Amino acid sequence: MKNILLPVLVSLLSSCAIAQNTPPSERLQIILTVRNIFEGTDQHDWSKVQSAFAPEVFLDYSSLSGTPGSTLSCSEIVESWKKVIPGFDSIHHQLARFQVVIKDRKAKVHYFCKADHILAGEIWTVEGVYDTVLEKNHDQWLVTKHKFSLDQQRGDLTLAAKAKELVRSR
Asked: How far is 133 from 30, CA to CA, in rounded Å?
């Protein structure tokens, strides 16, 4: 039994050591890159959003929308968000519980998100977790995969459609 468990324990400890040896500044840079997506979206600062994405990103909101995830260009993502996000009076994303695993030039980040979408006094709240993958390009971490897994939503579930219609009518 000892002979079987020893390699497994060594492997687990090695992966922990990789994570622990990652400089805090590297982990911070990764988290700040992820936060730029949400802060930029809340502020309609599309250049901030674009600065976080690689030229192509696998984007998956299928648990919320029912549409399968797909690979899109950074500009396609931003242009599609511009057709909905500005229709809300405000949006506020809250991110928490970041778990960052870095191996070589790739980082996987798992975190919780709560987003409040407000329009005409109504609110639509979405909660779930993201699994985001970033790759280091020169000295910059860029998002290459961004997947949301819905936990729950409440409030006026029609607000996204209403916001999209408002943007279209402007």
From this structure: 10
| CA nearest neighbour of 113 among 129, 98, 89 | 129
pTM: 0.85
Q: Which amino acid is at 95?
A: L
Q: Which H or E run includes 65?
A: helix 62-65
Q: What is the DSSP string of 103-150?
A: ETTEEEEEEEEEEEEEETTEEEEEEEEEEEEEEEETTEEEEEEEEEEE
pLDDT digits (tens, 9 = 90+) for 130-145: 999 999 999 999 999 9
CA angle (50 as vertex; 85, 138 as ends), nearest 5: 160
| Residue 22: predicted pLDDT | 66
Q: Are 63 and 69 in contact (CB under 8 A)?
A: no
